[in-house]
Amino acid sequence: MTEIRASSLDPETLTAAQAVAAGVDFAELQISPAGLFWNEYRPAEGSSRIWRRFEETITCLTPAEFSVRSRVYEYGGGAFCLTEDSVIFVNESDQQIYVQPFEEGEPKALTRGRKRYGDLHFSNGLVLAVEEDKDIHQLVSLDIRDGKRLVLARGADFYASPTMSPDGQRLAWVEWFKPHQPWTSTLLMMCKRLETGGWSEPRCLAGDRDEESIQQPCFDAHNRLYCLSDQEGYWQPCVEGSFGLTHLKAADADHAPAPWQLGGRSWLAIDMGAYLASWSENGVAVLGLRDNHGVVTDYSGEYSRFRSLTIDDENIYCVAASATCLPTVIAINRKTRKSKMIAGGGSPLPAARISRAQPLRYASGPNGKVQAYGYFYPPINGAAKPPLVVFIHGGPTSACYPVLDLRIQYWSQRGFAVADLNYRGSTGYGRIYRNALHLNWGVADVDDACAVVTHLAERGLINEQQAFIRGGSAGGYTALCALAFRHVFRGGASLYGVSDPLALSKVTHKFEAQYLDWLIGDPDKEAERYQTRTPLLHAARIHVPVIFFQGELDVVVVPEQTRTMVKALQSNGTRVEAHYYPDEQHGFRKAKNQADALEKECAFYQTVLEGERRQSSH
What we know:
Structural class: alpha+beta
Number of strands: 36
CATH topology of the domain at 6-16 and 350-500 and 545-617: Rossmann fold
CATH architecture of the domain at 6-16 and 350-500 and 545-617: 3-Layer(aba) Sandwich
Number of helices: 10
CATH class of the domain at 6-16 and 350-500 and 545-617: Alpha Beta
Mean pLDDT: 93
Helix content: 10-25%
Shape: globular
Strand order of the largest sheet: 29-30-32-31-33-34-35-36
């Protein structure tokens, strides 16, 4: 085997602290005559703040005592919007809405109380928002002058994307009901302004069927309504017509990820059927502007992922990333197609020290009759048949992308190969692939995680006897299932992962309360299925080392889940480590904790391999 020792690393090797500190991220770009604005998260500070670029000058608008983040549905999103002279934002600590002038003046509260707000939009003097009051959700408007609150829509379980036409006469939004998630079945709703100034009764424009998910509605300059619908198999642009939605000409690809967070913008309607969008081709994103004749201009350049799109007459703005570039705010000239970095970007590593993503497409499932996807990263040291770490993303309806991820580079620089998987159920491959996890969670995803080890071993790219699996949240569940029900992996890690789905369904938050019904089945009717897919109940079958990481403030996967699983493994004599972070919620945000977890996980695997080396030498 290839011996892996931290002491043998050269001075250019990325440290955990560097990997985490470089994880600055950007979201929610917005353009106005007052400049370009974005929300910037810095792990070293553990906070998010609004930045503004105006006349080539970049300044931070958010005072140090504030952090801009919504927690609606726990995953938040849509945490700020703009007026002509101020920014309106949700403050992380109290979840209230504040108004702050661009030039001078402290933020002033527009709301007070215990309600939470997200998905903010400003139009015609009103702040539109999703309001959360414990388990009750509504759409509301707030008058920017006096904070007067008006309920716009109530009765559905969930709401998203409130948007008003430029003339102020129509209001559109997306809503859905349990047990559905926003990527399984949603409704596109609309109401009209009355002469009295109020609003008409809402009516459903599209989505009144169980097999259609609609997201990101928006109006063009002529007050025509557009959205993305997956009725034809992929999330593709549509425009309202006399008899419902009409699909615009588009690539056979998803034009959006699963909407776990509010406020996403992966496409923009421009006018007369023209639109700007990002979609995936052969595992790499395309940024294209399609005119009303169907002609596409490609603005992708060197980048391989695009999000948070916005546009003006001169430039396209977005958050972009590539195989060698960290997330960056860029401006792309619409005429020359040349891009310019505005914030972020770059890499602490020289290009020669970066492991590049190689697209994976491999056989999985019963008799190898289905295809699974992902990306393979070879180790930097070029070792033959290195140990492997399989990354399982959360969600599980989420995705990984072929962009520079310094966590992956951390592993590749320490002699590990990495397989970053888009197992069945992941976003980006259409509705059928996404729905392949329906009632199959803990089976299809585990099949795909195990099959990639066989696939890479057959190609001579890894040592299949030294494969590890790790995942966060839902990914932690897949990792634990793989360790309990298969004999493929030498060890693994669960980061705030699910070990008892039935217990999770009883205590988790409203947004995901019935998600498990879709993933596994009705807990009352399918009790046996839950028993056979619960890692906690089969802890005695896990005989390889496992390491756990858990936030004490987690309300999605509560800490007791991890503690119970750890105790079960310890009682069976399995080697286990557990690390708890008192100041973390679901998904670690503080740099010191992220770095600590990364270092401890890597050291854990290295110790396992060192033990094997010593055993084989005797």
